[in-house]
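Budget justification, computational time. The allocation requested in the original proposal was used primarily to generate structure tokens for proteins on the priority list. As evidence of use, we reproduce two of the resulting records. The first is shown immediately below.
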Amino acid sequence: MKTKQFKKKTGKPLYIQIQEHLLENIEEGIWPEESMIPTEAELCREYDVSNITVREAIKLLVMEGMLSRTAGKGTFVTKRKLEQKLNRFFSFTRWADQNGLKPASRILRVETMESDSHIARHLNRAVGSPVTRIERLRLGDDEPLMLEVIWIAADLCPDIHLKDLSNIPLNDIISDDYHLPLVRAVESIEPRLADESVSKLFGINKEVLLLYVEHTAYTTKDRIVYFVSSTYRGDRVKFTIELEGRT
């Protein structure tokens, strides 16, 4: 399929114009998912610009998760982003099922420890109080999508490390085994760049933006049950918030 015609405009940096034009080609299916786009040399000739200009345009799309670079092979259109709605408690297992993916969890580390000041503040506990720390990688169709680090107040959920944390949703364990209804949660979201360890774990370039989410879950009487920091791949996941009109 032929690419859309490009016309230079005044008043906007050229690399931004090229980035927007490349994005149009992606969104209109001219370059399908997982297909390789033209090389930088080819794009330079097409747009009649320098390598630096093309490289900056591509870099923006890599950071947005629309393109990915593979050393020695080329630049490719990424898969569609998976949508996660933020208006309800989240279950990775159910979310993966809804997106037609086979969910899996890889437990990286589980330990009981004394809380430091940072975790104690998030759990509303005294510094040094026992907490269980669970670190796990969440996968869909064997593709790493999210890294979770969970801290749970040990007095509320004793021996939770003995539960089947790989196959049973955490919220179900807390509700069914510990009889703690989860009544509300507070979340914050911010973008981050991958460091070397996370980029290797996800198999992505460091240029890809990550979505970092902090989530605090409450039971009755405003007691905090757990605090979790989740790192999502920005090239594969997007968040949607549904807002209601004023009444």
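The second record produced under the same allocation is shown here.
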Amino acid sequence: MSAPRAVVLLSGGLDSATTLAIARADGRDCYALSVDYGQRHRVELDAARRVAASLGAIEQRTMRVDTAGIGGSALTDPLIPVPETPAAGIPTTYVPARNSVFLALALGWAEVLGATEIYIGVNAIDYSGYPDCRPEFIAAFERLARLATKAGVEGRGVRICAPLIALSKAEIIRRGVALRVDYRLTTSCYQPDAAGRACGRCDSCRLRHAGFEAAGVADPTQYQA
């Protein structure tokens, strides 16, 4: 009997790599979905391919969506600087409706594959405050998925799994280490240089480095000098 299929959203970052490892440990046949959405940190797409191969995904696909055409985010608009100091409120690195778009793509592929679950590495503890990383959003999208698809109305709704949502960054890293995730293959920086080295200053870099410190694990990230 074949294993249940799952679509795993895979950015190439620390959280999504750990999520893929968890899905594999859950006994799922994993189909990794990465999204080229016009992000300035495109090195993450190469990282996603490396991670998918390392963690045994059945298939890895990269789909394209032009969120740069929407604008409004430092991750897609080169005229908006990536913030390097913490600020109150939701930071400019928020990409409008990004996880709604990503989950919609994953939902379509899951329906074609006959997958029963979608795994997404959102986190609501050590995170930047993005509204589409909260448990309420995940629960709402799962309800939408039951209403919006043929599989859902026929009683075969897809479950949205967010195994990291209540974990600290240190807990995520420890879980990944236990599952033999090679974090050297991942990238988290919002503004890496041409060689793919992390800036060490953006919000994502700060959260990543603090997580390794708190976990008591050596940070394998290559930083700019």
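A brief technical remark on that second record: Residues 5-215 form a domain with the Rossmann fold fold (CATH 3.40.50.620).
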